[in-house]
Each structure stands twice: as C-alpha cells, then as structure tokens.
Amino acid sequence: QVQLVESGGGLVQAGGSLRLSCAASGSISSANAMAWYRQAPGKQRQLVASLSRGGITNYADSVKGRFTVSRDNAKNTIYLQMNSLKPEDTAVYYCNADLVDLYYRMRNYWGQGTQVTVSS
Predict the structure, then answer these.
(1) pLDDT tens for residues 67-85?
(2) What are phi and psi of 62, to 5 degrees?
(3) Can you tell me the distance from the alpha carbon of 118 to that of 95, in angstroms, rounded to the nearest whole number?
(4) Are 68 and 51 a contacting pair, CB within 8 Å?
C-alpha cells in the first residue's frame, strides 16, 4: 500500500525549531513534486513549501527566511526545517506528493498530518 508517513511534529515555544519528515512507502518507483501544507483551526489548508524533484522550491510568504524544505530522492523523503517558530505557525501540517508506481502511473497522495503547536 502506497502511503506518506509524517513525523516530527510537537509542542515548541515561540522562537524554537522543529523538523518535519515525510517518507513515501510502498510499491513506488519515484516521487515527483513533494510539498508541505498546513491547516489551522477554522482556516483553509494552505501551501507552506514545495520542492520539485529537480530542486525548484516555492515558499509561502509567511515562512520565507524561516522554513527550509529539502528532500532525499533516494529515500523518497521530504523534510521541513522550521526555525524561529511563531504562534501563528500552529497548525496540522500535511505532506503531499505525486508518486509514481511500478507501472509508471502517477497519483497524488496526502499524509495523515502531524500537529505543530507553538506556544507564546
């Protein structure tokens, strides 16, 4: 079964750091575009950062200069290093990826989400 498994969320004080990881598992041959989204209570899910297989990044304005997205193509894993965290970063963070299966069919997947809470 193909899935995205996230880890690394938690509770941190404002100004602190967290690192999220998301690994694709199952019968896949590769991962194309991968991204992190977040959803705060009562708000729509929004893009935080994305990273193409070739290394092109895109960040939400609210996280530029504080968050860094990276990936390990050999492990089909994406990371999100979050520094200088603010209370407004509190949300459930979701991993998203276009995964290619062993028959070279591509499909979009979502992870289960990981909670990030930043206390003031």
Answers:
(1) 999 999 999 999 999 999 9
(2) -70, -15
(3) 19
(4) no
